[in-house]
User: Which sequence fits this backbone?
């Protein structure tokens, strides 16, 4: 009899980690989708703090915080009120310092698709801000404006406000004339050599002697030149390079007559000799 053929029925042993077959499989790298490799994912905080500048005025920039999930089209809409540009026409460029990083030109992409980080600057270029300069102005003549019923002038006139309030204007005119009369009387008393007391806003009361009365070159109105007893002035008796009287540095000032009171004001300390 022929010997029966015996088949190897032993089950195949599983591959172990150290087996050559397993090592060969482990060495294979997964395939990468080209499209996915090109996508840039920006992780981290969803908010980013940036500066926004615009072509209308390069010297001005605004610091703002925006979500990286904003689409570029939505981002442009948020830039309209602070730049004066139009979302439909504006161009955006991303800068790090003075270096151009990217152009934000894909309206459907989120802001985080670009390498945007805190402290970077988005520059807005647009012609929208300049359109108004070329628009013809609408102007009214004085007669046309006077005839308008809804104008500010007509409102003031109807309600007797401001210069259209005859009683109030007469009162103000009377006060002005009275002030002029008081200043004229003070000016008459303010003779050169007279002692005086000067009171001005933000300064202590100062005693001194009137050294000059008259006009100053390049300044309207009448002035009194005063030499103070203490170095509490602002000049040495000169103004704009022209000398009007002699005194030491910081001992002189030119003041309006309304700030001066003429009277018997002896220098402080003169009466000390009367006491023993």
Assistant:
């Amino acid at each position: 009899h022929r010997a029966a053929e015996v088949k190897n029925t032993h089950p195949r042993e599983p591959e172990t980690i150290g087996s050559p077959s397993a090592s060969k499989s482990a060495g294979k790298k997964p395939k990468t989708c080209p499209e996915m490799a090109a996508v840039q994912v920006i992780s981290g905080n969803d908010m980013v703090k940036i500066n926004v500048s615009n072509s209308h005025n390069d010297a001005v920039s605004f610091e703002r915080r925006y979500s990286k999930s904003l689409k570029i089209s939505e981002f442009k809409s948020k830039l309209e009120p602070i730049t004066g540009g139009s979302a439909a026409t504006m161009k955006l460029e991303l800068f790090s310092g003075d270096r151009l990083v990217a152009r934000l030109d894909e309206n459907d992409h989120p802001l985080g698709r670009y390498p945007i980080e805190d402290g970077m600057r988005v520059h807005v270029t647009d012609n929208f801000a300049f359109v108004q300069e070329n628009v013809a102005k609408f102007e009214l003549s004085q007669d046309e404006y006077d005839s308008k019923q809804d104008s500010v002038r007509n409102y003031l006139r109807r309600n007797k406000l401001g210069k259209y309030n005859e009683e109030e204007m007469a009162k103000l005119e009377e006060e002005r004339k009275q002030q002029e009369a008081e200043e004229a009387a003070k000016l008459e008393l303010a003779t050169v050599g007279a002692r005086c007391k000067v009171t001005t806003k933000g300064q202590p009361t100062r005693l001194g002697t009137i050294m000059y009365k008259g006009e100053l070159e390049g300044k309207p109105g009448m002035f009194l030149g005063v030499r103070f007893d203490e170095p509490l002035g602002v000049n040495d008796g000169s103004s704009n390079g022209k000398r009007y009287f002699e005194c030491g540095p910081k001992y002189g000032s030119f003041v309006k007559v309304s700030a001066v009171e003429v009277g018997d004001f002896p220098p402080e300390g003169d009466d000390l000799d009367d006491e023993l």
Q: What stands out?
A: Residues 1-11, 13-43, 129-136 have pLDDT under 50 and may be disordered. Residues 166-189 form the longest helix (24 residues).
